[in-house]
Design brief:
It contains three helices and no strands. By secondary structure, it is mainly alpha-helical. It has one domain. It starts with a helix and ends in a 15-residue tail after the last helix.
Length: 80
């Protein structure tokens, strides 16, 4: 119950404190705002590398959870 109340209180606060200024700025992601305020090229590179690291980490978790990590795809790793 407390989680539902926390969400209902926290979500409008996030909308007013973060989302509205971002919309007024004309930017919609954190990388856009950081690139606007700081040097654009390094911020874009860091955001891209960070995204790739997170995606690879989540993919490793997914494949280890499905037990397909380490199987040979050439031999038919998903068949069994």
């Amino acid at each position: 119950m407390i989680y539902a109340i926390g969400f209902l209180v926290g979500f409008p606060m996030i909308l007013f404190l973060i989302a509205e200024p971002l919309r007024n700025l004309g930017r919609y992601t954190f990388a856009d705002v950081a690139a606007f305020r700081l040097s654009e090229v390094p911020v874009r590179i860091i955001a891209g590398v960070n995204t790739l690291v997170i995606v690879l980490y989540i993919s490793l978790l997914f494949f280890s959870g499905t037990r397909t990590l380490g199987r040979s795809w050439a031999i038919g790793g998903l068949r069994g």
